[in-house]
């Protein structure tokens, strides 16, 4: 007779699902064992955290015990941090000091990462380099077809990011050549474009803010970077609060949590109150249900809804431009932003109301007609952006079928656009209710 295994099976499945939701322990993996041993040699002791793989965020750090508000999450000794000081005390130091015009702190760190990665087994930083991502999903690394699917303001910033790395590469080639005595291979093959792109993304996505005194051998750009092995495995959550700073007394970089965290739960930190476009641009990821997220309205989109025959149109646009009301116009979870509605009110001023533009900019009500027109136009813009977003989501699903190699990058843009759609639909609902109320 068969035993009824239904309930036990369900229990086991639930337990397995729970452990998967909490995270799968990865501390037994060789790369993490080597990293922890390497950090211990530099004075790092840790019993609060362990590496794990999480369902939503990928790899991160799991709490080995419950954490209370005010608890120290991690304390990483100065010896473990990779800074421009580390670079200057390496064999690159002499070359950097002699080079004119001085290199930037950012380029010094990029050069160090590329050189150490090339050194392979001989690099004292190998245990750290082995756990760094092999590739990144910052807009600078995205394919041209994928960049074209980004919202307009982000697409522009992504292109600027790409051009900035290209310019850094172009302007650094002679400096890279000066390092030839240090290498058996040609520096042109070691310090190639993809190596610099990888190093730049590593620094841009993973460094902690740490101010260093200016050194004459560096250019005047701020020297505020530090790579923090192990600590940089902590993922971002917009819903947590932490205190993070370098402690001069303990000579360690410390993070304290202002939130509670259960045992075996993922420990997260907050990289700042960033919207999803900023998170994707700076870190290469998107946060679902991000309370700080918003959808940007470009000046072109805004002006499409106002007649070119309006005699005061030019003056209105000039006013908005001078008072910086053509940027950062958004729809959020709570509807159109005050800035967006104010810009719409200025553009909606009648000929007889135009003299009131200063009061309108300060938030005064000019007339019921003006208020209503601004709301109507906001609703039209919102519906236009909903259609545009739905069209892009359709293009993405088509491309996912056709271009297998772009799937991970397309999935990222799909997440961004899906989140945008949710925000716009919520805004449309709010505007509909406002119109009903008036």
Automatic annotation (TrEMBL):
Record has Methyltransferase as a keyword: yes
Keywords: Cytoplasm, Inflammatory response, Methyltransferase, Nucleus, S-adenosyl-L-methionine, Transferase
GO biological process: inflammatory response; methylation
Entries under InterPro entries matching the protein: Rubisco_LSMT_subst-bd, Rubisco_LSMT_subst-bd_sf, SET_dom, SET_dom_sf, SET_MeTrfase, SETD3_SETD6_MTase, SETD4_SET
EC number per UniProt: 2.1.1.364
UniProt cross-references to CDD domains, sorted A to Z: SET_SETD4
Domain SET, first and last residues per copy: 42-272
GO cellular component, one term: nucleus
Recorded catalytic activity of this chain's protein: L-lysyl(20)-[histone H4] + S-adenosyl-L-methionine = N(6)-methyl-L-lysyl(20)-[histone H4] + S-adenosyl-L-homocysteine + H(+); N(6)-methyl-L-lysyl(4)-[histone H3] + S-adenosyl-L-methionine = N(6),N(6)-dimethyl-L-lysyl(4)-[histone H3] + S-adenosyl-L-homocysteine + H(+); N(6),N(6)-dimethyl-L-lysyl(20)-[histone H4] + S-adenosyl-L-methionine = N(6),N(6),N(6)-trimethyl-L-lysyl(20)-[histone H4] + S-adenosyl-L-homocysteine + H(+); N(6)-methyl-L-lysyl(20)-[histone H4] + S-adenosyl-L-methionine = N(6),N(6)-dimethyl-L-lysyl(20)-[histone H4] + S-adenosyl-L-homocysteine + H(+)
Enzyme class: transferase
Pfam family for this entry, one: Rubis-subs-bind
Glycosyltransferase found in the keyword field: no
Compartmental location: Cytoplasm, Cytosol; Nucleus
Signal peptide annotation: none
Molecular-function GO terms, alphabetical: histone H3K4 monomethyltransferase activity
Subunit structure: Forms a ternary complex with TBK1 and ZNF268; the interaction with TBK1 is ZNF268-dependent and leads to TBK1 monomethylation.
Protein family per UniProt: Belongs to the class V-like SAM-binding methyltransferase superfamily. SETD4 family.
Protein name: SET domain-containing protein 4
């Amino acid at each position: 007779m068969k035993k009824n295994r239904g309930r036990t099976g369900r229990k086991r499945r639930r337990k397995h699902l729970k452990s998967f939701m909490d995270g799968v322990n990865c501390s037994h993996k060789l790369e993490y064992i080597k990293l922890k041993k390497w950090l211990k040699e530099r004075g790092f002791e840790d019993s609060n955290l362990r590496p794990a793989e999480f369902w939503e965020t990928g790899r991160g750090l799991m709490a080995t015990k419950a954490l209370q508000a005010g608890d120290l999450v991690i304390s990483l000794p100065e010896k473990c941090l990779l800074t421009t000081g580390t670079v200057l005390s390496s064999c690159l130091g002499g070359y950097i000091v002699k080079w004119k015009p001085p290199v930037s702190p950012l380029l010094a760190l990029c050069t160090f990462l590329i050189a150490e990665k090339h050194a392979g087994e001989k690099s004292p930083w190998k245990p750290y380099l082995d756990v760094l991502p092999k590739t990144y999903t910052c807009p600078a690394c995205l394919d041209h077809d994928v960049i074209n699917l980004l919202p307009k303001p982000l697409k522009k910033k992504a292109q600027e990011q790409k051009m900035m790395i290209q310019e850094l590469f172009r302007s650094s080639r002679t400096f890279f050549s000066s390092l030839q005595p240090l290498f058996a291979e040609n520096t042109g093959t070691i310090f190639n474009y993809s190596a610099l792109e990888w190093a730049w993304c590593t620094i841009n996505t993973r460094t902690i803010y740490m101010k260093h005194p200016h050194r004459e051998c560096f250019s005047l750009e701020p020297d505020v970077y530090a790579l923090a092995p192990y600590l940089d495995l902590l993922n971002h959550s917009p819903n947590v609060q932490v205190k993070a700073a370098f402690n001069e007394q303990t000579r360690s970089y410390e993070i304290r949590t202002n939130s509670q965290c259960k045992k075996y739960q993922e420990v997260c930190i907050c990289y700042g109150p960033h919207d999803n476009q900023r998170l994707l641009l700076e870190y290469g990821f998107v946060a679902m249900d991000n309370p700080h997220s918003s959808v940007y309205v470009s000046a072109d989109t805004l002006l499409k809804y106002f007649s070119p025959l309006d005699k005061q149109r030019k003056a209105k646009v000039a006013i908005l431009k001078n008072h910086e009301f053509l940027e950062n116009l958004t729809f959020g979870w709570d509807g159109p932003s005050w800035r967006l509605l104010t810009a719409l009110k200025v553009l909606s001023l009648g000929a007889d109301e135009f003299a009131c533009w200063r009061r309108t900019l300060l938030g005064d009500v000019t007339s019921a007609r003006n208020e209503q027109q601004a709301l109507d136009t906001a609703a039209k813009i919102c519906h236009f952006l909903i259609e545009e977003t739905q069209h892009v989501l359709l293009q993405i699903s088509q491309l996912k079928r056709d271009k297998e190699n772009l799937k991970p990058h397309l999935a990222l843009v799909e997440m961004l656009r899906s989140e945008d759609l949710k925000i716009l639909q919520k805004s449309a609902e709010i505007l509909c209710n406002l119109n009903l109320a008036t």
